[in-house]
Protein 1
Amino acid sequence: EAEIERHSYDVLVIGAGGAGLRAAIAAHEAGLRVAIICKSLFGKAHTVMAEGGCAAAMGNANGNDSWQVHFRDTMRGGKFLNNWRMAELHAKEAPDRVWELETYGALFDRTKDGRISQRNFGGHEYPRLAHVGDRTGLELIRTMQQKIVSLQQADARARGNTGADESRLRVFAECTITDLIQTHRGGPVAGAFGYYRETGNFVVFRAPAVVLATGGIGKVAKVTSNSWECTGDGMGLALRAGSTLLNMEFVQFHPTGMVWPPSVKGILVTEGVRGDGGVLKNSDGTRFTFDYVPDVFREQYADNEAEADRWYADPEHNKRTPDLLPRDEVARAINSEVKAGRGSPHGGVFLDIASRLPKDEILRRLPSMYHQFKELADVDITAEPMEVGPTCHYVMGGIEVEPDTGAASRVPGLFASGEVAGGMHGSNRLGGNSLSDLLVFGKRSGDGAAAYVATLKGVYPAITDAQIDACRRIALAPTDKQDGENAYELHEELQQIMNDLVGIIRRAGEVQDALERLEKLKERAQHIRITGGRRFNPGWHLALDLRNMLAVAECVARAALLREESRGGHTRDDFPAMSAEWRQQNLICALNEARTGVDVVAQPLAAMRPDLLALFTRSELAKYYTDAEIADVSEEGV
Ligand code: FAD
């Protein structure tokens, strides 16, 4: 066994997606030594897949836009379960974060008069998504990668050298963190333990502050738009460290994933297709979304095709198309059409842009979509409709954090931002609100970690050999079994359970069944055996990821069973209505005493600040709140 490699930093950022990179830039700018650790190659994080854009109320496409309108849309999208302080910070700060990216070298698409162009997206009252064609995430990551190199170059210059100096900001790529290290269970963070994917060699990072920016959980699902990295690692790490997860029952199914051919099932078809004029149709050729506008949204959405079509050119005087209802509504609508026998040949519905825009416009606005369908499905989207259906896309739940600093309050030194953190999006996220979330809260968590480190005055917790040995034993467990379970089989079974029993539509009996099956899977996972050594061994990597996926799946199922209402990304067939009483409760998951499973408890939401509450009319709030909660709100709102 090679000697275990060791490093020491002020701040560790785990994850090199949008949130992680922005956090690292912030912590470095605060004068600290920062390591960024990521499972994939630098520049290849899941964020690069983001297509449609980054929501920010810059008001370039419609001068009526403002942070208040963005805040309102976000709260409506989340059905008022959002952490309102996060939604406020997000709406206020997103425009600055987008501008700042241009100072780093990003170049967003432009309006005719040279301002940053903004496109329509579901649930956003005005065109609001800053974008680079349909490759916005790539530009975001490319730019921040470039910024990181420029910071390294500045460090080199400050020391009188040329080139890039990695001593104060370094990326450890293809390196997976398996456990956090703490002074004692639940105590302050001391560092993290992991392995290099290529060699299987172990590595220890000592640092008093860790920012978790590990992204989502899509790989728990059978059909997903997410990349291979999205195995819920950050949530698993946080739980084991004594932190808590919030509202894990809320999982977003994006309405439009590819449904065919099977090898690409789940790959995303950006909402930008509908934002730019594409419409959903069933096998009868009917634009069915008009039949699925829920009462709470009736005032904002057109009830006929003519008005919906006029809205694209004249949003001032027309109501928007229900093709752009929030994602949870559209996903359920598609689900119902397919169930009613009006689906497409491969079990989805049709998404038609071909009959709506000229060929060259489609090619200009949606180049990636054109190539994706041409290459993967041999479909020419400029000539024929796409077949699409729901795909597991995003988790609204996540690590419970303090809004202003990203601190995971129950573990000193632990911070989280991006998709791994919970609260911001309530029960359902609006498209485009993730990229802005990454920038706003990535920065805040980096600043928060830096402020925490400053309070330590250079006295950092130590890491003992016994602690390292304990992490090493856990990581090696699957390598020393004589015979046992196969990690791939367990993963498939897990995905099938979540697909069949804790999917888009949930029922108590089925979720209970899922929990029983998950218990058995957890037991079997103790006996996973991998063959071959530790040198690039995907079976071993999966065995370790499964620990996190099983924990996350259990959180989703337990919270889904407890929440007896339907809201956003959580639909209970047996409790189809939204409940004003349930709106007052967050569900909090923590590891149980014996550390064998997860406990869930309800915890009241903080009441919204009166000036924010006043941004809504009383009659709108009455759809979500109890009478007592809005007794002081006037009918007009602001
Ligand atoms: P990620 O980008 O997922 O990055 C996670 C990082 O953590 C990676 O670097 C990974 O390697 C690392 N990591 C994970 N586990 C470990 C570990 N154990 N050890 C070390 N490193 C680890 N949102 C929008 O706002 N607009 C859009 O247009 C949009 N389009 C999307 C399109 C697609 C196809 C998908 C799937 C999502 C889209 N989203 C969009 C959502 C958005 O892309 C994600 O929510 C967001 O990118 C998540 O960013 P993140 O920084 O939190 O994490």
Protein 2
Amino acid sequence: AKADGRGTFRRYAAGMDVHMQARQELKVALRNALARNELDLFFQPLVDLSSSRVSSCEALVRWRHPDKGMVSPADFIPVAEETGLIIPIGEWVLRTACEQASGWEGDIGVAVNLSPLQFKDGDLVKIVSDALEASGLAPSRLQLEITESVMLDENEANLHILQELRHLGVKIAMDDFGTGYSSLGYLRSFPFDKIKVDRGFISDLPEGKESLAIVRAVAGIGRSLGITTTVEGVETQEQLDAVNAEGFDEAQGYLFSRPVPAADIPDILRRMGS
Ligand code: C2E
Ligand code: CA
Ligand code: CA
Ligand code: CA
């Protein structure tokens, strides 16, 4: 039994080593990714449901790893946060997104995801205003998407930063709405411009009774608070019909377009821009 236990432990330990080694390699490679131009921004359109026109595009970072190919942000953003690299990467994303959007026709907005760690850095407001100034993008065209972790414990410092960002004239969206514990409470602490219902509530529409009830309630809250309501992860016409019936303002998902390279956006805007 003892030998078994040791054997089990050894196998487990070896597994951990492999995992940690892979993560360590990822850290080293990520450190060089920015300088080596391996990061790229893709964009995914958000469609205004009353006009069926693109209202904005969300910037989604991509990493072309020299050996591994495309690495999903779901895999490397956590590593970037752990190492602090999210600060330079986040700044690059902001600058590049504003730069790209300033070249789009019409008043098409651009949405940028912010990590909670970017709020700890101290320079976020300056980084955002510099990105706006350098690109010449009108502040009202920039939307910053934050998740509930930014609001955790009614974090006073972060609320203050959000207010300063708002004073720059940018829009603040709550992303992945409904996945945390206190989504509703946070709507009371800060006047968000937009809520984006997490795609987990969309995937089982139209059959999912619970999801439908929640999605309906969020649409109602948005209406009464004057907050733009968006859904993400719309993949089928049936899902779109369901969110349309609930009166959502905007939708995003593979049904309209996958995230595409920046070079493809002008074409999409010509076909379905504002
Ligand atoms: P998110 O902000 O919730 O972004 C939406 C994710 O859903 C994207 O995954 C997008 O490609 C995917 N998606 C869009 N439409 C559909 C659909 O119809 N069906 C399905 N199944 N998926 C859809 P992606 O690009 O892999 O990004 C994953 C997450 O990584 C993002 O989730 C965001 O949290 C994070 N992320 C991406 N770019 C950045 C960035 O520049 N900065 C930070 N801090 N986080 C980022
Ligand atoms: Ca997002
Ligand atoms: Ca989201
Ligand atoms: Ca999500």
